[in-house]
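cron nightly-structures :: item 1 of 1
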Amino acid sequence: MSLATSTDLTISVVGIRFRPAGRIYYFDPQGQTFTNGEYAIVETVRGIEAGRVVIAHKKISERDLSDPLKPVLHLATEDELRSMLSYKNKEKEALVRCHERIVQHNLPMKLVEAEYTFDGSRLTFYFTADERVDFRALVRDLAATFRTRIELRQIGARDQAKLQGGVGPCGKTLCCSSWITDFGIVSIKMAKEQGLPLNPSKISGVCGRLMCCLSYENDNYIQAKQQMPHIGTMLDTPSGRGKVVAVNVPQNSVEVMLESGASIHIPVNTLEVKRKSKGCSGCSGCGSSGSGGACGTSRGSAGGCGCGSGGSCGTSAKGSTGGCSSCGIKKKQ
């Protein structure tokens, strides 16, 4: 392992971003020096494009690269920057004209954004649709209208929100349009883990999908719950014995229903939890509450019954014969 690490080749790269909150792509600087915030002309799989430098210099291991590095051709000149700004101002007009063509062709698609390359050599339209759309006739019409290469790209609801931006239920700018570069996995299980209402209107973002922020604190909830008594655990409280019916991670407390039927909230740090052993259903010989002389047949333990009182146990070691004369737990054959 150490030999392989010592022979790894380290190469210099520059990080380029093509959208404000888009992914960062690495390019070969070709010996050039850059400063964050500058625009550079780079070679990509889609052709020549202009991007903003966000990582002026970085060294990475060659094995971390999934594809060969494309080169940075040169810094954008003043003429190229003026051209890029000029085409940027034409994107809204292009969006309107494309929408008119879509209506004429009666296509079931919704336009989201138009994007020119810095030199106007390609015009890309982003759209959403519920199904696959045959837009070949539309592309020919648009190519004749704009006199440039046309590309139509279908995107999902999350990508639409990222492109258009907006304000979330929290009152802040959408995370996806301000700083999230890649969409992570968000599941309904995360909402359940955090005790959130399973109401789509409460846990969905403006895109109609589960909110990305459900994943931010999910690991903290899982870790915190491991240190808290589980629902169904029997506890001895100052108000009497009761069962845990709910946990509150933000307040670090549990809701306990007493034998009298009343419910109380108790901070976890004031509890001494006495959990009933897994595998022992309770018996008169070893005690059903987990207190003195409880059955030690925890899940996955090597031994059998660890009764310390009230009966002779014949399953104290794996493979021993007999069972427990008190609680009736028998050796697995």
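cron nightly-structures :: done
Residues 2-76 form one domain.
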